Model the fold of this input.
Amino acid sequence: MSAAWRVGVDPRRCIGTGICAGTAPEHFQLVGGLSTPLADVVEPADPVIDAADSCPVEAITVRDAADDRLIAPEG
Amino acid sequence: MTESAQITESRTVPPARPYPFSTADRLVVDPTYAELRENEPLTRVKLPYGEEAWLATRYEDVRTVLGDARFGRAPAVQRDEPRLTPRQQYSGMLTMDPPDHSRLRRLVAKAFTARRVEALRPRAQEIADGLVDEMLRLGPPVDLVEHFATPLPIQVICELLGVPYADRDRFHTWSEAIVSTTSLPLQTIQEYLNNLWGYIGELVAERRREPQIDDLLGALVRARDENEDRLSETELVELAAGLLAAGHETTVTQIPNFVYVLLQHPEQLTRLRADPSLVPAAVEELLRYVPLGVGSSFARYAKEDVEVGGVLVRAGEPVLGSLSSANRDGTVFADPDRLDLGREQNPHMGFGHGVHHCVGAQLARMELQVAVTTLTTRLPGLRLAVPEPELEWKRGMLVRGLLGMPVAW
Done:
């Protein structure tokens, strides 16, 4: 497991379902109706993966902060 | 009440109003919601079954109740939850909170992403075109519910899940059990649910005998068999049954509702026919405008004291959020009671909000877009074949919709 993850939300894809903010409230919040990560680089945590895998428009990406490898969403 | 109790009770709990406020009348939103949004944004209600609840009617408050992690669904299983149905649901995704809920949700969500759903669009279009071909062959009048609105979503969900479409008459009957309020006796509801679960159980067994079957049911069976912590056998069967049933009473109901609203707004329908690129925006506006549910269900329980709409909701109390009311909130939607197919800012809550936001939302959007496009382009003279007052509406169900819709063109 890598030491840190980089979390991104694509605002052009986000439709503001609020699934991520409910799934991982410590990592995402809705600002002006759209999802925003509370921090860009985070310690690995399951809810972040759950949120990325549950987003219906695949707006959330989780990458290894060291080598940029895609961790979620699953293909 | 003792004096000390009065001091600690820093709020007044008003007497509960019977809810829903009135018997559903076609697709009319009860004016009580507008009054409450204005004067009493959190009100006390008593549903036909279960304990009293709070009801939130303003957009922002409904977003809080549905989206804020201080509220949850899991406590409902321990309580006599406020509900419209005689039967209380004790399992499934809608009675779970993160992280338990997330474990199931992400397994299913993968199959319903916008990307996966877009790949199904050509097939949905092919099915829709075939159904219109058959309507043209039969000639008017044709029942739109029977010949278009029902078969389109059912065939799509059958192919996606891997359920034989040939069995549709059986599971269509059983699926009604999930959305029945008073239309079926409780004993029949339980019998139908058992039939539905048994039927899905057989399909699951088939996937185990033939693991190469590549459909959503097969993928769920593999997810369970690879790691039993991810999904129990009961969860697997109930989940698949829920997905099959959800494909029946939602999109099937909304297609005729949408056509009905469009026919009631001829100037908007003309606008749509002149510019088919409006279809995606039109579908969003119809999702906002049509109050699909007869009333709110699935109360969220406060996990701690939370202020909503100026009222202190105590930890453990259930709160309902009215989607139909939120969708008519004038602080968010300009001229909210007007249907405007070109509405640009439309963050409606037709699919709910938060972790339980409809898992099939992208599929429903695609199907509704295909349905509206196909009907408006291929049947440009589409109209009711009976006077509007003769239309028959569903009764004793969670959703509002037409039992039949005779149309000509």
Residues 5-62 of chain A form a domain with the Alpha-Beta Plaits fold (CATH 3.30.70.20). Chain A has a mean pLDDT of 95. The two ends of chain A are 19 Å apart (CA to CA). The longest strand of chain A covers residues 5-9.
